[in-house]
Design a protein that fits this description.
cell membrane, Multi_antbiot-R_MarC, membrane
């Protein structure tokens, strides 16, 4: 998750004259949606993989590629998403497209499945869930205050943070791709 980058992106999608009260509602709905999506994926994600006959390592490679594309987009600054303000209300935009797929997209889906697959004990699963929920709270607080953060950081500050997060996401994506390819090579060769 890139709460600052996503907040900046969300502000470009939402109405330009959005009030602080409206941004609070959007932040709440978005956060609730991504937390529900997380628990659906952590509970039923592997079942979905089995239904479609997918290997976790294939998902690692694909998830790594998706994360890599996201990272490259963050680094290059090509994260513009336009929506028709008149056609949708801000609260509707909180769920689609902000929560899903901008915040909780295929990259996050893949990451959750991969981390769950690597979890050995219940404590590991609890730690993953706690870490995600803490990230969701941080996301909520940043998104809720994104108007103030936007003024404080300015455009340049937001761009710098988004690019740094892009580098971290890119490094994680490369690890997923290499790990998945090595595992698939051992299975199929």
């Amino acid at each position: 998750m890139d709460p600052i980058g996503i907040s900046a992106l969300a502000l470009s999608i939402l109405s330009t004259n959005i009030t602080k009260n409206e941004i609070n509602k959007v932040a709440s709905r978005t956060t609730i949606t991504i937390v529900i999506a997380f628990f659906v994926v952590i509970i039923a994600g592997e079942f979905v993989l089995k239904v479609f006959g997918l290997d976790i390592n294939s998902l690692k490679v694909m998830g790594g590629l998706v994360l890599l594309l996201m990272a490259l987009s963050m680094i290059s600054g090509n994260t513009k998403f336009k929506a028709e303000e008149d056609a949708k209300q801000n609260e509707e935009l909180a769920i689609i497209p902000i929560a899903i797929p901008i915040v909780f997209g295929t990259g996050l889906f893949s990451t959750i499945i991969i981390f769950k697959h690597e979890a050995k004990t219940f404590l590991d699963l609890f730690s993953i869930s706690l870490a995600y929920c803490l990230n969701a709270v941080i996301f909520y607080l940043i998104f809720k205050n994104s108007i103030h953060i936007k003024k404080l950081l300015g455009v340049t500050g937001q761009n710098i943070i988004t690019k740094l997060m892009g580098l971290i996401v890119g490094a994680l994506s490369i690890q997923f791709i290499i790990s998945g390819i090595i595992s698939l090579t051992k299975v199929y060769l």
